[in-house]
User: Fold these one by one.
Assistant:
Number 1:
Amino acid sequence: MRRKDLLDLAHKLANRYRVTDGKNFRLRDFDPADTAWLKEEQKPAANDALREGVEVLSELQEMLYAQDRWAVLLIFQAMDAAGKDGAIKHVMSGVNPQGCQVYSFKAPSNEELDHDFMWRCLKCLPERGRIGIFNRSYYEETLVVRVHPELLQRQRLPPELVTRKIWKERFEDIRNLESYLSRNGVIVRKFFLHVSKKEQLRRFLSRLDEPAKKWKFSVADAKEREYWKEYQDAYEQMIEGTSTKDAPWYVIPADNKWFTRIVVAAAVIDALSSLDLHYPKLDEAGEGELEQLRATLLRGD
Ligand code: ATP
Ligand code: MG
């Protein structure tokens, strides 16, 4: 595919699932099984496009690194078995590991609980020139913690600060953080992998059937499924409360893994290619220095 066509395709796909203004956002308007204009039979062609996309991504990342001005933060959130790990693995497969860091945030430790809710994530923000990936993030603080209020109790917040407004306040704090980051050259893009309850069941069962996948399944995962509705409401309000132009959410259909990966790749390519990345140019003095260096090397000194 021509480079321009690939970038156009990425742009078109990214646009379709991007939410930049959460007002009136409704999760039910997004179908987890959607595959845009692509059909199941086009899967091989789609996979070819993904491979090309991964190459383009790798070139863009090299320039990001060399230019050393922008940082990129990609945040992934989803229900269990929606395919976060696979999407991260496939989309970032061509990227030089030196330019990319992945952090997974699990249930917080005692030390982490002794701090404000974003503390542990702020320590992991990407430096300039790098892509940082959060596999779960401070958004869990408006999801699992909201669905299970006892987790909020464990945070030992002063009681007068825990009011019914706490979730709205957290959304506001997150919006402010992300706006601060974008003003500092950190590009923030957030991905909600939207899987249906039916497809999650199918994947859980296949994990139980396949010895190589069994380890991925836990009683806790099955238990969280019982709170499906509460989670969907929490996700909806999270997207409603924290979608901005600077830090948009992508609501990505996750019932078909091949399609999920294409859209994630498209959104990352679209974000990076909008940055006008280029390799640093040397001025005349710099060029002269290199020419001298070449002469020295050739003399064998
Ligand atoms: P994943 O399910 O993302 O593939 P995993 O199965 O390897 O990861 P788990 O041990 O399931 O990892 O850890 C993730 C769990 O940690 C999730 O259930 C998540 O809700 C929980 N978690 C993450 N952040 C928080 C938080 N701030 N407070 C409470 N629980 C959290
Ligand atoms: Mg898990």
Note: The chain is about 50% helix and 10% strand.
Number 2:
Amino acid sequence: MQQFDVVIIGAGAAGLFCAGVAGQRGLSVLVIDHAAKVAEKIRISGGGRCNFTNRDVSAANYLSENTHFARSALAGYTPQDFLELVGRHGIAWHEKHRGQLFCDRSADDIIQMLLAECGVGGVTRWQPCQVKAVRQTHTDGGPSFEIDTDRGPVTSHQLVVATGGLCIPKIGASDFGHRLAAQFGLTVTPLKPALVPLTFDAGSWGPWVGLAGISMEVDVATPVEQGKTGKRRQASDAHFLEDLLFTHRGLSGPAILQISSYWEPGQPLTINLAPHTDLAQQLKDAKQGSRKQLSTAWSQALPDGVPQRLAQTWLEQAHLQQPSIRADASLAEMKDRDLDWLGSSANSWQITPNGTEGYAKAEVTRGGVSTQALSSQTMGSKTVQGLYFIGEVVDVTGWLGGYNFQWAWASAMACARALGKMTP
Ligand code: FDA
């Protein structure tokens, strides 16, 4: 049976990066992936340009049962470290808003860089290759893993699971890592799609369908429970100031993708459509001696760039709930309490999604192998010697903006540094 110092299952961002580093440290490394093409998620990421990291990364940009878990790995391998690697490979990049770093040319540059690093490390790749079973055996040399594959069996004292999350099954996502964790007695926290568009009941969404395609800056919030597992949890709001996009089935855009990671079924979203303006006050200020119709004053109170279509639909819906609010009413004759109602309806729009667009449209999976089961220094299991989990399969979920790739690099590096030479 072939033997390696380490077998890595999953040739995505975390698996390939870990393999290259471990190989260059002198370890014999085998990477196995069931997909025919490597790192397809990198290829489709960032609209084909891969938002490979963010200038400003801290554990606060991640969701996890233990919000401190990611700290050590993130400190041990920083965005600057990854930028140095990107620079050594001559990859041109640029910064977009909020510190997001993208390839100038194509996400393929990052894939080729990872493969080149694997090449330098003498990494063996089996692909496509199905893993049929994994067993742990105990020999004189200590515990070891036997891995049955459709290219034959292979053995190793160290097994790294880098099979990612459940998003986009058609390009290779599977629950292999979660199942393997369970097989070895490790807890997996509840899984759900994150960084995903939100949907609404067809009935309640009806009035807004005509707004599909409209995008605008909003502040969106949802209640969350925070706190470390085992400690008292506190309720507070997560919120993001970003762009929102109306779709035919609901809401999307960066603001919604970000908040979706925190959203729990049944909870409302509170959306401020004019985050820098007190709309009620604006209308009341405009009222004195005005000859305007409410519809004109309303359009002028809303932020620049908000299309007429939205302003008009909003007034129509407001009228259905408060008949005294009429688009053709004279602003001067409007009661302050109606202007207060109208203003706050858009400054704090309460709306409850009925679900998400699911794993087919999500960018990441929230939840995964419990951080309680892993060392934050090495990503190794606390109970199964030689078993490691890295990347998205772990219960560490980043915000939109390059944070998930930075977690893939950082967790892979923490693991690669901890792996040892086991074969002669
Ligand atoms: P990843 O999913 O990359 O790799 C897992 C590998 O394991 C795959 O190659 C898969 O084939 C393999 N595998 C799965 N099951 C297996 C099995 N049973 N046997 C063998 N192999 C198996 N993040 C970010 O920071 N910036 C961005 O721009 C984007 N953009 C983006 C766009 C889209 C459309 C998506 C879906 C996701 C993103 N992301 C992102 C998220 C990012 O792609 C993701 O977090 C990382 O790829 C996770 O890296 P991993 O290596 O953990 O998993």
Note: Residues 403-418 form the longest helix (16 residues).
